[in-house]
Amino acid sequence: MLFMKKNLDLPTAETALKGRSIAIPTADTHFVFGRPLNAPPPEGIETAIFGLGCFWGAERIFWKTPGVWLTRVGYAGGITPNPTYEEVCSGRTGHTEIVEVQFDPKEVSFAALVKLFLESHDPTQGMRQGNDIGTQYRSAIYFRSPEQEATARQMITEYEKALAASGHREKVTSEVKPLDTLYLAEDYHQQYLAKNPNGYCGIGGTGVSCPLPQTA
């Protein structure tokens, strides 16, 4: 039905929703770890930002990973300041749903997290993830340093080779950009599947393994 069709084009600064100057309220405490959700990471803890479809299932994958200190879900890669979930879902903010992963690099490397990212969804689908269609479901890595960018791009190249070797002709469409601004999602989205164990997950993958860099 035409009225159900999603717009898969990102908005411009002129067409994006205006947003607001005040942040949307979110949770104070991580539902799984019991740690403050809005405190700065402790010394030695690094941060990675991934978008891999609906952030409910994506966040659970990362909070279950050894070496991860904290996870938070939100919106990044867009234009509208302090968007709501409904605004992001409209496709008129330019954001995608993301998971911020705070991790101890002594226990888990950024490369290992990128490997998990690539293997936990299908990064070749453009503005969708499975049956979830829209710009807010696009695959993305928002890097925090030149080292993260280099690792992400190298691993995407190697993953495309692994896809081709497995008979997949598609190219990875993941957005790889520096993190601009991240807006935290509303309280009920944080650790959603811990609060709602039978809730919608939406995570799938290609079944193809991504090789880790030899230096990882």
Automatic annotation (TrEMBL):
GO terms for cellular component: cytoplasm. GO terms for biological process: cellular response to oxidative stress. Pfam families: PMSR (PF01625). It catalyses: L-methionyl-[protein] + [thioredoxin]-disulfide + H2O = L-methionyl-(S)-S-oxide-[protein] + [thioredoxin]-dithiol; [thioredoxin]-disulfide + L-methionine + H2O = L-methionine (S)-S-oxide + [thioredoxin]-dithiol. SUPFAM superfamilies: Peptide methionine sulfoxide reductase. InterPro entries: Met_Sox_Rdtase_MsrA_dom, Met_Sox_Rdtase_MsrA_sf, MsrA_MetSO_reductase. Its EC number is 1.8.4.11. GO terms for molecular function: L-methionine:thioredoxin-disulfide S-oxidoreductase activity; peptide-methionine (S)-S-oxide reductase activity. Residues 47-201 form the Peptide methionine sulphoxide reductase MsrA domain. It is an enzyme of class 1 (oxidoreductase). Belongs to the MsrA Met sulfoxide reductase family. Has an important function as a repair enzyme for proteins that have been inactivated by oxidation. Catalyzes the reversible oxidation-reduction of methionine sulfoxide in proteins to methionine. PANTHER family: MITOCHONDRIAL PEPTIDE METHIONINE SULFOXIDE REDUCTASE. This is Peptide methionine sulfoxide reductase MsrA. It comes from Hyphomonas hirschiana VP5.
